[in-house]
TrEMBL record:
This is Gas vesicle G. It holds the Pfam family GvpG. InterPro entries: GvpG.
Length: 82
């Protein structure tokens, strides 16, 4: 019912922030993207991965794969901040 009310109100141009389902979902999406593409957090994950590898907690193949994934995410994060 809340979704239908939200769509009806939006169709006539009325939007109430905080009670608006789409606004709420956009806020959650924005927060998730900021967390996922936070360059400092990604750099820390790269350091953590390196430490795990150096202490023998991670195989060389896993280390290379994880590092490549994190580096890719870091490149995207840096592009998004421009």
């Amino acid at each position: 019912m809340f979704v239908i009310d939200d769509l009806l109100l939006r169709s006539i141009g009325i939007s109430v922030p905080g009670l608006d389902l789409i606004w709420t979902l956009e806020q959650i999406r924005g927060y998730a993207q900021r967390e996922l593409y936070n360059p400092e957090r990604i750099r820390n994950q790269i350091k953590e991965t390196r430490l795990l590898y150096e202490f023998g907690e991670m195989s060389h193949e896993d280390y290379l794969e994880r590092t490549e994934q994190l580096m890719q995410r870091l490149r995207i994060a840096e592009q998004l901040q421009r």
